[in-house]
């Protein structure tokens, strides 16, 4: 199949829709849990790991399962069609469940929503390397992360307006947009011909049976590549991913709570401030991919980690020395936070855009889905650890620990990245060169 940037932009709508859902979920669910159901921050953190628990358990399996799938639609689209509509419905029902103030109903709704999101997330991610040659993957990942940034931006900025009208409106709008965005992917992004079997119906039972026997064996084999290989680049790459997602997820989960309970401003304003990260991420996602292709992914990621660490440290010092006078976006302290977060979002783009291409370029075409699942296994394992760990610090010491907690893990990631020697591709005068460690 001929590579086309237009297809990557269309595929980006899948990331656009997913990003809207998770941005709204992470911004407002912790507030619901603490305000409506009076949960502690530690327990709130545990609840916020449900999506990550599903991800750790299911994403490697589903990545491998979609690798083996052959249908008239291809190997990734059936999972989008199964997961996206169901996830959208459950997401729209979250504020309805909150209105009843019934914890069992509320928890059941978010558990089902998280399950259905997990069902199609890994296949959507694995779709990108399916239709992109190795030397173009940083640039392609930049495009789809740009689209994800647009989704997060819409969720945070538009979500504030809707939330201030009625807390249910962002959930209704987010569900509808996510559903339409993934429909665009199914209708307009063709899968490679070798993964489409004309006239053959998918045998889901046979597929599940075969994959259940093989996928965990594949995960074990892939994890052996990580831990038993003499060359440790994959291990240190995944360890770095684990560290920086602990850092980012702790801020993403608790910043609206930090804004409300520590800075004394409305949670919707805190969500808007996080939206500035998405704005700069969106603006710099494509340049970050180009930069990774030109100067090297490792150097770009390292520089990004230093930038986002500096931004979080600056935000911590600001929050400890001054407090906003109001929730207005024009408040001087709020504006300073947004400037720092804009800078941090640039660094986060440099990190996030170039990381998945490094992982998938350490394997073969046949294992793309499995290694995509491996990438998400470590990132979601980090997200499984981050909320309860950060929440425990918040309960014991207070909200002043949130941003320093993130800084420590961003810097640990920068350190471990220095031991990664594979997975880099540098563009030189239009040609792709494999990364040679001695060139550093």
Overview of the structural elements:
This protein has 440 residues and is mainly alpha-helical. The chain has two domains: 190 residues, Growth Hormone, Chain: A; 206 residues, Growth Hormone, Chain: A (Up-down Bundle). Helix content is 77%, strand content 2%. Strands 1-2 form a two-stranded antiparallel sheet. β1 and β2 form a beta hairpin. α1 packs parallel to α6, α3 runs parallel beside α5 and α9 runs parallel beside α13. The longest helix has 31 residues. The two termini are 34 Å apart.
Fold topology:
Blueprint: H1 5-35, H2 41-47, H3 50-68, H4 77-99, H5 103-130, H6 137-165, H7 169-188, H8 204-227, H9 233-263, H10 267-295, H11 297-321, H12 332-360, H13 368-396, H14 402-417, E1 425-428, E2 431-434
Antiparallel strand pairs: 1-2
Helix pairs in contact: 1-5, 1-6, 1-7, 1-9, 2-13, 3-5, 3-8, 3-13, 4-5, 4-7, 5-13, 6-10, 6-12, 9-10, 9-13, 9-14, 10-11, 10-12, 11-12, 11-14
Pfam family, one: MFS_1
Protein name: Sucrose transporter
Organism: Thermococcus guaymasensis DSM 11113
Give a quick summary of the entry.
By secondary structure, this protein is an all-alpha fold. Helix content is 77%, strand content 2%. β1 (425-428) and β2 form a beta hairpin.
Features:
440 residues, mainly alpha, Growth Hormone, Chain: A, 2 domains, two-stranded antiparallel sheet, 14 helices, 2 strands, 2% strand, globular, MFS_trans_sf, transmembrane, MFS_dom, transmembrane transporter activity, membrane
């Amino acid at each position: 199949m001929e590579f086309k940037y237009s297809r990557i932009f269309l595929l980006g709508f899948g990331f656009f829709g997913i990003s809207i859902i998770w941005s709204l979920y992470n911004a407002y669910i912790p507030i619901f849990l603490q305000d409506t159901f009076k949960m502690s921050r530690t327990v709130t953190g545990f609840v916020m790991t449900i999506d990550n628990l599903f991800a750790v358990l299911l994403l490697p399996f589903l990545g491998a399962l979609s690798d083996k799938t052959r249908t008239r639609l291809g190997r990734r689209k059936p999972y989008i069609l199964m997961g996206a509509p169901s996830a959208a419905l459950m997401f729209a029902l979250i504020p309805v469940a909150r209105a009843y103030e019934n914890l069992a109903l509320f928890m059941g709704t978010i558990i089902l929503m998280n399950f259905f999101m997990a069902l199609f997330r890994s296949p959507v991610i694995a779709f990108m390397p399916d239709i992109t040659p190795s030397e173009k993957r940083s640039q392609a990942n930049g495009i789809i992360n740009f689209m994800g940034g647009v989704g997060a931006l819409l969720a945070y900025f538009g979500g504030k307006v809707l939330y201030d009208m009625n807390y249910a409106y962002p959930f209704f709008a987010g569900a509808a947009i996510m559903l339409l965005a993934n429909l665009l992917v199914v209708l307009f992004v063709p899968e490679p011909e070798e993964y489409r079997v004309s006239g053959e119906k998918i045998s889901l039972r046979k597929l599940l049976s075969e994959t259940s026997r093989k996928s965990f064996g594949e995960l074990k084999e892939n994890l052996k590549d990580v831990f038993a290989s003499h060359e440790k680049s994959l291990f240190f790459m995944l360890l770095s991913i684990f560290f920086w997602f602990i850092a980012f997820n702790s801020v993403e989960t608790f910043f609206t709570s930090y804004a409300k309970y520590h800075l004394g401003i409305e949670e919707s304003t805190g969500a808007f401030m996080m939206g500035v990260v998405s704005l700069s991420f969106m603006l710099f996602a494509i340049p970050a991919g180009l930069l990774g292709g030109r100067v090297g992914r490792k150097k770009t990621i390292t520089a990004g980690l230093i930038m986002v660490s500096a931004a979080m440290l600056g935000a911590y010092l600001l929050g400890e020395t001054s407090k906003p006078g109001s929730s207005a976006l024009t408040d001087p302290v709020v504006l300073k936070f947004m400037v720092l977060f804009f800078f941090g979002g640039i660094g986060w783009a440099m990190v996030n855009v170039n990381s998945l291409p490094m992982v998938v370029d350490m394997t073969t075409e046949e294992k793309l889905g499995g290694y995509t699942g491996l990438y998400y296994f470590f990132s979601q394992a980090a997200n499984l650890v981050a909320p309860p760990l950060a929440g425990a610090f918040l309960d014991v010491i207070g909200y002043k620990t949130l941003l320093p907690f993130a800084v420590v893990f961003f810097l640990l990631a920068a350190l471990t990245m220095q031991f990664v020697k594979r997975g880099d591709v540098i563009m030189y005068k239009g040609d792709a060169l494999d990364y040679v460690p001695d060139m550093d």
